[in-house]
Every structure is written in structure tokens, then in C-alpha cells.
Design brief:
The chain contains seven helices and eleven strands. It is an alpha/beta fold. Strand 2 and strand 3 form a beta hairpin. The chain is globular and about 50 Å long. The N terminus is likely disordered. The structure holds adenosine-5'-triphosphate (ATP). The site of adenosine-5'-triphosphate (ATP) has 12 residues, from strand 3 and helix 1. This is NitT/TauT family transport system ATP-binding protein. InterPro entries: AAA+_ATPase, ABC_transporter-like_ATP-bd, ABC_transporter_ATP-bind, P-loop_NTPase.
Length: 266
Amino acid sequence: MGIAETGAEPRTGAAVAVRDAAMTYRRGRTAVDALSPTTLDVRPGEFVSLIGPSGCGKSTLLKIIAGLLAATGGSVEIDGRTVTEPPPGVSVAFQKPTLLSWRTIRQNILLPVELRGGERTAAGRRADELLATMRLTDFAGSLPRELSGGMEQRAAIARSLIDGPRLLLMDEPFGALDEFTREDLNDELLRVWHDEPKTVLFVTHSISEAVYLSDRIVVMRARPGGIHEVIDIDLPRPRRREARGTAEFFEATQRVRASLEQVKSQ
Ligand SMILES: Nc1ncnc2c1ncn2[C@@H]1O[C@H](COP(=O)(O)OP(=O)(O)OP(=O)(O)O)[C@@H](O)[C@H]1O
């Protein structure tokens, strides 16, 4: 397991290039430095997790990358283009599934296609495939309230995949779920990522989730928010549930835990 230096030299061909991105929130006379100048490259197809104490700027960084929030300093490029608004080919999934209560699960999954006025026949086929992948075929015609929390989140993830995004930004998508459901969804996410390669940036509070999913883990510190260190996770892929019980997995979680302890004691 190696440790990459933070603030490394920009690599060419990065899927996401964060360059000294910074965020100061202002309300009246109060200013909150949420993110100090932060530099990070994510390679195409890479799975990178952000982990760190509450308030260290994980969501802020993700929103800046998503073009949902304008950084007060620095810039972000996605596939070489500076982000000034939500870029095409980028999907975001949040902790709350935010499904529309009056639309069926299938209609919810198809919503992004409708909003951009996309072609419906191919999208319908894709929706059916995603329903099958997410084991929701039998619930295609159900309303969100008829589903469990884990099923709703699977539907929200299917919705975020409907347009075949190149980059998937996920902000604690499984944070509200019990451990078993969460592990199921980790496996489903890895399957989708394996079958349809894409770059993923994933915010989590769970060390084991970050280790299980990621190629690299970005450990963040608070006050001011920023990158503490980046840890490579060299566990073999494809990763299966049994991997969670291995000495290598334990060692990797301990490595991340120690880094978070350093952050806490700063
Ligand atoms: N809209 C806002 N206005 C003012 N301050 C904000 C706003 N959004 C976030 N902050 C502040 O910025 C800092 C970083 O918040 P952010 O939500 O990015 O952290 P986080 O690491 O995602 O936290 P958590 O793990 O608790 O979700 C916090 O101090 C937070 O209070």
C-alpha cells in the first residue's frame, strides 16, 4: 500500500482535475472557510473516496466538482473542460434518494431523460436493464413509498445511471442504510462500475466501505477543510464480500483509521 503525496503535480488526462479549489461561505459579516485551496487529480475510470470528520468540506468539494456550487478560489476541470455549471455526462447521487413521490419507480428512473427531452424508446430499454441490475423489476410500477430505504436508494442510483454518465459523484449514498443493505449496495455499485466503466467520486463516513470500494482514499481534515493524505488501496479486483475478512483488508482499514486519528488530533 503506497501513499501518494497530496497536492501532487497535475497529471495530464485526468478525468477530474481540482486545482487549488477553495470555498469560503459568506453570510452577512460571517465567513466560513469550508475548503482551503485543494488540488486533486482523479484518473479516468478510477474509484476515489473522500473520508474525513464532519464539516471537513467533503460535500462542498463534491458540489464544486458537480458544478452545483461556484468555488471562491481555484478551478475544476472535467475531461479538460473548466466547470462553470453542471457538466453533461456527470451524475450526482445524494444520501436522500429524492424520488418524486407521485411517479412510479420506472418513471423516476426515466426523469433525467424526460427533462433533457431525450429519445424515449432506447431510454425505456435502458431503464428496464437498470431495474433488473438493481433488482427492482418487480417494483417498476410501484410508488417510492411502497419501497424500503435500500430499494429507494437503488432506484435513485438507477436514475443517476440512466444517461450512462462518465463521472458519478456520490455523497454518502448509503449513509442512512443498515450495514447489510449497505454491503449489498456496495456490491451492486461495484458491479455497475465494472460492467460500465466510469469514474466515481464517493463521499463516505465508513472506513470499511471506502476500503472495499476504492482505488484511492482521500483523507480530509477539518478547520480549514482540505486534504490530509491520499492512500492507495491495492486490494485485488474484482472485490468480493469475502475480501472483507482478509488480513489485507484489515490492514488497509487500520491504515485509514490511523490517518483519521492523526486528523482528529490536529
Ligand atoms: N451553505 C452553507 N453556508 C454556510 N456554511 C456552510 C454551508 N454549507 C456548508 N457550510 C460549512 O462548511 C463546512 C464544510 O461543510 P461540508 O458540508 O462540506 O462538510 P462535510 O465534510 O461534507 O460534512 P459532513 O460529513 O457532516 O456531511 C462546515 O463548517 C459547514 O458548516
